[in-house]
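Re: that backbone. Tokens:
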């Protein structure tokens, strides 16, 4: 099939999506097919269209590229784990791919005025990563500035989202682009982005594969572990002196304290005193012998915890916490509330240039989310890498959980 085989309406539909592509995505066509960049984005798109019409870009390749114009960006990730992970074994990747591709509505048949529901428009298989990538489009509305009246008006639009079925990590990732001035998706008004996730995942489970959601309790323990590692002193001298203090000096101090006042004999007092004294002694040892820096998978820039109606928050506005300034504050937050969100910075060495990708991780009942705090584009490899690193912690902490599953 070729662009010339499409009727006028179908060609117009494709141009609608092409107009949404940016330089980051168009550069992929430049590098692979030699599309000239032009003086601006409009010329770049026209050059891509010219290459398509002359056959320099295969039609199927162009359609695959067009379906992924929002896969990379400052996207939000919502990670869902099935209660029964055996479904990845009982539904092999090739079978799901072949079963699903027959359900696709081609993108050139999608029109902004006639689209009424969440619709599957593309599925791609990446055997190297053991992933299936599903593209969905949804009717939506956005606010657009009317320059003549200097007012904002609601306009029909198409919202594009993705679900990645990962056979290695055994989970599903809903990828949502934070479209500017988005009002609603499928008639559901957007207040928080999380409020739109259910309608997209509902359609995915109806169209592709049915599964029950598992409550990802392990992510809370992982966030705690990440924070502990980040603020740990890594000094064996401190560890050794702390052990000696605990086993030789501490018992005498506890006994002396208990003997000094009958109130200290009450249940819980000795344990609290021991904990406080050990922490004070450890802090003094760190001051005396120093902290040894150790490479970490993530830096931390945000820590939120809550206890009932009270919220504690430490935030360095996108820059990594320093040990000296924040370690003790964060420890107090651990003791006075449960972790509600953690801001991590993933660092990537790009040919000698260190690039930083900050995410805020939060847990809900049926998923956990990673949300970008900047507008910089994030390539898919970075997203995959962050999720792989988090999953490595899951292997350490999950045995302590049985997991609470929920289904709709």
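Recovered sequence:
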């Amino acid at each position: 099939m070729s662009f010339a085989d499409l009727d006028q309406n179908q060609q117009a539909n494709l141009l609608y999506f092409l107009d949404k592509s940016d330089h980051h995505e168009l550069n992929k066509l430049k590098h692979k097919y030699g599309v000239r960049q032009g003086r601006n984005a409009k010329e770049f798109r026209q050059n891509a269209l010219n290459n398509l019409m002359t056959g320099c870009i295969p039609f199927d390749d162009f359609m695959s590229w067009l379906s992924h114009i929002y896969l990379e960006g400052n996207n939000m990730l919502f990670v869902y784990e099935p209660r029964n992970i055996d479904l990845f074994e009982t539904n092999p990747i090739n079978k799901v791919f072949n079963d699903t591709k027959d359900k696709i509505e081609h993108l050139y048949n999608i029109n902004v005025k006639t689209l009424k529901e969440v619709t599957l428009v593309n599925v791609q298989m990446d055997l190297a990563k053991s992933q299936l990538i599903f593209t969905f489009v949804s009717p939506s509305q956005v606010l657009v500035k009317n320059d003549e009246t200097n007012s904002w008006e609601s306009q029909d639009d198409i919202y594009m989202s993705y679900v990645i079925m990962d056979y290695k990590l055994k989970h599903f990732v809903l990828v949502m682009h934070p479209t500017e001035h988005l009002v609603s998706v499928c008639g559901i008004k957007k207040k928080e982005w999380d409020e739109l996730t259910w309608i997209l995942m509902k359609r995915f489970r109806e169209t592709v594969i049915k599964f029950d959601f598992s409550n990802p309790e392990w992510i809370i323990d992982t966030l705690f572990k990440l924070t502990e590692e980040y603020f740990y002193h890594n000094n064996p001298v401190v560890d050794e002196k702390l052990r000696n203090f605990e086993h030789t000096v501490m018992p005498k101090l506890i006994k002396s304290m208990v003997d000094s006042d009958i109130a200290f004999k009450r249940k819980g007092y000795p344990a609290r005193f021991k904990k406080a004294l050990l922490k004070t002694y450890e802090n003094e040892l760190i001051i005396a012998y120093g902290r040894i820096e150790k490479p970490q998978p993530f830096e931390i820039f945000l820590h939120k915890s809550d206890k009932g109606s009270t919220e504690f928050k430490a935030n360095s506005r996108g820059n990594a916490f320093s040990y000296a300034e924040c370690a003790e504050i964060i420890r107090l937050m651990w003791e006075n509330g449960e972790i509600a969100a953690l801001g991590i910075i993933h660092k990537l060495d790009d040919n000698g240039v260190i690039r930083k990708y900050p995410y805020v991780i939060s847990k809900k009942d049926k998923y956990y989310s990673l949300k970008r705090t900047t507008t910089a584009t994030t390539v898919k490899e970075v997203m995959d890498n962050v999720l792989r690193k988090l999953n490595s912690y899951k292997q350490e902490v999950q045995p302590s959980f049985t997991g609470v599953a929920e289904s709709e």
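Residues 400-408 have pLDDT under 50 and may be disordered. DSSP finds twelve helices and 14 strands in the chain.
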